[in-house]
């Protein structure tokens, strides 16, 4: 597979400035319509493989109710192109913020009606090696009254509501407090973490 170049829509300098200032950034119209549709198809064709994310190591957690499917290196060639783009973005983060990112791990996520993810941090008190988190929204369209928003506290302690707009990527420091509001329609995405350590899957 040919390496995917960072899309022109990704204004890297602006992303870096926003991360430095507030700890998060938004990229709208991240990919071409053709690639977006291929990625949606790859995700939806595999929905029967998704598993409830609230069960970890056999223990049921009440903090989340979504369903996920890990994207491994030898699967999902369309999604792998998105991961390649994040790997290139990681090089920019390393160059500017000295984060030492070595690896990107990712999974498809499906929030069915009523499903949510309560307040949490992806890297609480620096207890794991997740440095930067990202969410790419896969659906064709999204209306505000459908819920599913990302509720995020920035570096200054201010709260933001990020709509899960189609073809949008939300990028943020993994130690920031955030939650996913209950969805009223099926909400599809790819969640990825830019890590300073090796893969967990």
Automatic annotation (TrEMBL):
Q: Which UniProt keywords apply?
A: Dioxygenase, Iron, Metal-binding, Oxidoreductase, Vitamin C
Q: Where is the Fe2OG dioxygenase domain?
A: 102-196
List, alphabetically, the Pfam families matched.
Answer: 2OG-FeII_Oxy_3
Question: Which metal ions or organic cofactors does this protein require, according to UniProt?
Answer: L-ascorbate
GO terms classed as biological process: cellular response to hypoxia
Establish whether keyword tRNA-binding is in the entry: no
**Protein's name according to its UniProt entry:** SM-20 protein
Organism encoding this protein: Acinetobacter rudis CIP 110305
